[in-house]
Design brief:
The chain contains 13 helices and eleven strands. The longest helix is centred in the last third of the chain and has 24 residues. α7 links the parallel β6 and β7. Strands 8-7-6-9-10-11 form a six-stranded parallel β-sheet, sandwiched between helices. The chain is an alpha/beta fold. It comes from Azospirillum doebereinerae. InterPro entries: Glyco_trans_9, LPS_LOS_Heptosyltrfase.
């Protein structure tokens, strides 16, 4: 029996981006017993991984005691393979036949490519999700029963500097779902973590009865189950953006001071919109004033609306082509 220890990120987005590598391991070693260690927030995303023997949510403790706890949990097992994306002492101090560690790429590459390099994989395996029946049932309870296509919006992020103004998200949603828009009459699901709900309220208020309020109501797995049913996701650079892309939902990510070349949504159905203000100028503003506001103001509503309509159009065209030739295997576009 092959035993694999997979240590991944505390951060939601980075943990999602590591799932391609984990998926590769489940296919390469189908009979393996897996232990996954990660932060408490992304932990639900791993509960249905094939071959999972143990899931260890690593709640941060003072004096790095969470690492000591992980070592105590793992040192009694002889691991055939340790994959340590945190480059930690634990990965070096538990018994293992083979151990590999994340290393910063020598040149700028996407995080998915950097993670895949741990095992020398090229092309890199795309992020994926293992959505279980429990999460699907939660989505059934949260979403309208008619299963009509809906727009999903992620108007918040873990840093205010990465948030496009809420009123622009509201106007975008109303435009996309208007009678002449690409999603006429569609409902709009608004997603945000519990502590970020207050910043999503302007969007909910503007949408009124059109809104499906998912703010603070889902864990990452339930959010993923909801997003698999969305016609389109538009959101800031965040963990939710990466969940949407990994779920296969057409995903449009908005970037101001962030790094889409490294952290953009990954996949054939993923696109990015950036602002007109150069990133170096935005980062200089942050250096001078860490609480600087308006860093996303350079992203025009028209540009986002146009990109959203184009992405929806491309997705529908591809789906029509596949439906027209059900006896053929559809070609999958490159992952970037």
């Amino acid at each position: 029996m092959t035993r694999i220890l997979f240590i991944t990120s505390n951060r939601l987005g980075d943990a999602v981006l590591s799932t391609g590598l984990l998926g590769h391991l489940t296919e390469r070693f189908p009979d393996a017993r897996l232990t996954v260690a990660c932060g408490p927030l992304p932990a639900p995303l791993f509960r249905a991984v094939p071959g999972l023997e143990r899931l260890i949510p690593m709640a941060k403790r003072s004096f790095a005691r969470h690492w000591l706890r992980l070592w105590l949990d793992c040192v009694g097992t002889r691991w055939d393979l340790v994959v340590d994306l945190r480059n930690s002492a634990v990965g070096r101090l538990v018994p293992a036949g083979r151990r590999v560690f994340h290393a910063k790429a020598a040149r700028p590459v996407h995080k998915v490519e950097e993670i895949a390099a741990v095992l020398g994989l090229s092309p890199p395996p795309a992020p994926r999700l293992w959505i279980d029946d429990r999460a699907r049932a939660e989505a059934d309870a949260l979403l309208p029963s008619d299963r009509a296509p809906f727009l999903a919006i992620g108007p918040t992020a873990n840093w205010l500097g990465k948030e496009w103004p809420a009123e622009r998200f509201a106007r975008l949603a109303l435009y996309l779902t208007a009678a002449g828009g690409p999603l006429p009459g569609a409902r709009v699901a608004v997603l945000a973590a519990g502590p970020e709900r207050v910043r999503a309220l302007p969007v909910l208020d503007a949408l009124g009865d059109r809104a499906i309020d998912l703010t603070g109501r889902t864990d990452p797995m339930a959010a993923a189950a909801c997003l698999t049913r969305a016609a389109l996701y538009v959101g800031n650079d965040s963990g939710l953006m990466h969940i949407a892309a990994a779920a296969g939902t057409p995903t449009l990510g908005l970037f101001g001071p962030g790094f889409p070349e490294t952290y953009g949504p990954w996949g054939a159905r993923a696109r990015v919109v950036t602002g007109t203000t150069p990133r170096d100028a935005l980062l200089e503003r942050v250096r001078v004033d860490p609480d600087a506001r308006g860093l996303m103001d350079g992203i025009a509503e028209d540009a986002v609306a146009e990109a959203a309509a184009e992405l929806l159009g491309e997705t529908r065209k591809n789906c029509d082509q596949i439906a027209a030739k059900p006896w053929e295997t559809a070609e999958i576009p490159p992952s970037r």
